[in-house]
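Hey, can you fold this one?
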Amino acid sequence: MTTDISQINILIVDDEPTNLTVLETVLDEPGYRLVRANSADEALLALIADEFALLILDISMPGMSGFELAKLIKTRKRTAGVPIIFLTAFYNEDQHELEGYGTGAVDYLHKPVNAAVLRSKVAVFADLHRKTRQVEQANRALLQEVAQRRKAEEALRLLNERLEERVHERTEALRAHEIRLRDAADAAKLTYVEIDARNDELLAADNFLAVMGFTWPEDPKAGFLKGEDLFLSHVAPVDRARVAAALREFAPGPPVPSFDYQIVGDDGIERWIESKWFVRGVADGGADGGARNSFLTNLDVTARKTAEQELRRSDERFRQLADSMPQMVWTAGLDGSIDYYNARWRSFAAFGEGRNGDISNWADILHPEDAERCYEHWRSSIESGDEFQTEYRLWDQRHQQYCWHLGRALLIADKDRNALKWIGTCTDIDQQKRSEQELRRANSALEQFAFAASHDLQEPLRSVALFTQLLSERYGHHLDEEGHVFMRTIVSAAQRMSHLVTDLLAYTIVSGADENHAAPVDMEIVFARVLENLGRAVQESDATVTHDVLPEVFVPAVHIEQLLQNLIGNAIKYRRDDEAPKVHVTVSSGEDHWHFIVSDNGIGIAPEFHVKVFGVFKRLHATSTKYAGTGMGLAICQKVVEICRGKIWVESTPGEGSQFHFTLPGGPRN
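Sure. Predicted structure:
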């Protein structure tokens, strides 16, 4: 038995230091740790601080006696089990011993103490304390082991439950997967025949009749040859020899990958079937081509074959139609490789029948200046699937010159929106381009004429105004009031005529503008320039002009500034007398355009004039001297918006202000 040699604590209590020294001398053992206490209070503090195997206690002590201390120790749960040996030199009567034992002491010794007896008794209690501690440690270890075992058992139980759940889930998943496979096979019209070459047995799937249209023998031992005869008897005569050869090729050599054929079921319905061999393993003979176990899968592809036939017929009809058209037509695969040119194209470009492939094959007929742009647009359309449209020049073999064409191609899809191919056309726009050039030259000449006419008209008007003013200054004192009125009328009319000529020139310039001169324009910058131009009018009218965050648009910059300036200027001009003008420009985005609104709090416009105000020389206040103008401002605005391929309209109620709407190309998708 292993002895615990760790020290144990023994508390010795006596108010006489000499007695404590004697006890320490008697009990001087390596396995004991002796703790001294000179009073009951020190003893209590020591008992609180440490655990003790034995308490040797003097009875006669000042303050609290040994009996009183023992009673107090026994009332406390932590110290109640500590053995107590009383030592006394005075209390020798039997009643004292009874009182000592009554307080819970385990022994009662008289002084002077027999050292051997004391050591023997202390040794007994020390050994008992050690064994008690060993038992407690063993109990704790046992309890810990039991707890760990219970924990392990619980973990094992949980693992078993989880394993059972996973097995159940996997079983259910496999069952569901099998059902899905069966349903998928039924939906796809897929069946099979399992062939056991070693035992010469054939077993058909449950849905064999539904797919193939005839019944397979229920007896798997009918054999391969009988099954082959039954199989071939339902194959269409035109395909029977080919299918028989494919079936026989399987036995001695590698399996045939796949083959399709027509089959006639017992119901008389013709079906297209695609069959494939799947080898499961080698029964015998090793790698030298012995008997095999395999599956012969049979897929009903009637719908696909019918669609392919219809597609071929449709393609033939399309090509016949395309060849009869005067338009140049071509088609390309999804990768952009051109696979067809119609007769008109081949005649124009002198392309032979084999001249297909990439669009780069056009290199010898495409104008060098247009080639890279055309190729880039085509590559972009192939990647995005968007419409291909661009203009380029092609070499006309017959007339030996380049002619302008509009090239367009669209991605064609089936009813389920699956992309099929590209269909493209080349439209001869050479005459149109020449007409546009002539029109541009005519517009340029008209614009030059308008400038010249404006200058020639402005000069006499300035002379009329100037000499009328000189006449008024030099000879005005000879004129009466009516004469002065006549003079002012002449000057005013000359000024109005000058403004009218200026507006007519602006209208002519806008009318001849080319939308191809459009460029990205920041409307924030345009708005700032307009406010700067209208600075004097804004200041004099105390107007407030605000705006939303304005976008970038793709329009002719000069014209869009004139549009915004005319609308804001009108909003300031046609103001109410009782309120300062408030003008606000808002903008919102449509799918492919920007929608602008110029709102004001002015005098408004009656509904019957909402369309007329955009006409040339249309003034709603022609007789009023308060609202001067030529009636050209809104006509110019309408012309600018039309050139930008937008719309302009007005919503207004008299006395409640107006909202002028206009749209410009752009928006998030552009």
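The first helix runs from residue 17 to 26. Let me know if you want another pass with a different chain boundary.
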